[in-house]
UniProtKB/TrEMBL annotation:
It comes from Streptomyces griseoloalbus. The keyword Transferase applies. Keywords: Kinase, Transferase. It is an enzyme of class 2 (transferase). InterPro entries: ATPase_NBD (IPR043129), ROK (IPR000600), ROK_cs (IPR049874). The keyword Transferase applies. This is Glucokinase. Gene3D superfamilies: 3.30.420.40. Belongs to the ROK (NagC/XylR) family. GO terms for molecular function: glucokinase activity. Its EC number is 2.7.1.2.
Length: 317
């Protein structure tokens, strides 16, 4: 049987999604379960098993040659384990071996969710055609992944490109990760909203205090809301410029809920980049919204599995 498909899993704190994906990145079969994130580890794994059961029941499963997993992190691809911050029942959980067993022994490739989104945007989305890119998710947290020299660069453990925990304010607020002034502590959705509230912004009659509500207020000209997004944009610009200076990326792609804020984020971000990305070789750095949407994690996990299969085929020759 020709193995021209891969299985993909996208594991987060809200949902566990699965798919069978072809070599053009098309999703042919889907399955999904809510993540029982507050439950014990085995209960979470049962939800993963339920997704895999649905995929393996498809007649197309016989054509799957590998499984790709994009998981909330930290992940450890070397050990095959995951410890998602928002799934406390999984700490050093042996996800790769459990999925390999459930998938009938197929090879399994594990990467962090930020790396998966970078893989998707490079393969099918806003970073297509760029050999050196940083792709970011700016949402409840801030994550990312790198493409260097035309290839995904997950690093030894699958976490490379985790820009959310670059410090951009040496004396800044303590971040839950233990460092200070991290990009995530300034630019994530909850922190944009927290800063706006602390500085006197008040929600409308609906009581919505999300970053999306702050973005709407910023578009309407509320100065406190505008200032909170400008602060987030400066933090993102500093992190992006540092990354570009280090590894010479030429495009930064921004997705996630905060990335959907539009020009209230991107206008001050582009302006701040002119102040931080000052060396000649980073002047042409482009910043653009992500294109892949909610399927990015699945498509990126599939891309990682396909890349592994291609590497294995080359090694066998």
């Amino acid at each position: 049987m020709h193995t021209d498909l891969v299985a993909a899993l996208d594991i987060g704190g809200t949902k566990i999604a699965g798919a069978l994906v072809d070599r053009q990145g098309r999703i042919l079969v889907r399955a999904q379960r809510p993540t029982p994130a507050r439950e014990d580890g085995e209960t979470v794994m049962r939800a993963v098993d339920a997704v895999l059961d649905e995929l393996t029941a498809s007649p197309l499963w016989q054509r799957a040659g590998a499984v790709g997993i994009g998981s909330a992190g930290p992940v450890d691809a070397t050990a095959g384990t995951v410890s998602p911050v928002n799934v406390p029942g999984w700490r050093d959980y042996p996800l790769v071996s459990r999925v390999r067993t459930a998938a009938g022994g197929l090879p399994v490739e594990l990467i962090g969710d930020g790396v998966a989104i970078a893989a998707a945007e490079h393969w099918q989305g806003a970073a297509r055609g760029h050999d050196n890119a940083l792709c970011m998710v700016v949402s409840t947290g801030v994550g990312g992944g790198l493409v260097l020299g035309g290839r995904l660069h997950p690093g030894p453990t699958g976490n490379a490109g985790h820009i959310g925990h670059i410090s951009v304010d040496l004396d800044g607020d303590l971040c839950p990760c233990g460092s200070r002034g991290c990009v995530e502590r300034i630019a994530s959705g909850p922190n944009i909203a927290r800063r706006a509230l602390d500085n006197g912004w008040r929600p409308g009659p609906d009581g919505d205090t999300s970053a999306a509500a702050v973005a709407a207020a910023a578009r309407a000209g509320d100065p406190v809301a505008v200032a909170s997004f400008e602060r987030a944009a400066r933090a993102l610009a500093a992190g992006i410029a540092a990354t570009a200076t280090l590894v010479e990326i030429d495009i930064a792609v921004i997705g996630g809920g905060v990335g959907k804020a539009g020009e209230v984020l991107f206008a001050p971000l582009r302006q701040a980049l002119t102040e931080y990305a000052t060396l000649s070789f980073v002047h042409r750095l482009a910043v653009t919204p992500a294109q892949m949407g909610t399927d990015a994690g699945l498509v990126g996990a599939a891309a990682a599995a396909l890349a592994r299969s291609a590497d294995a085929a080359v090694a066998a020759v």
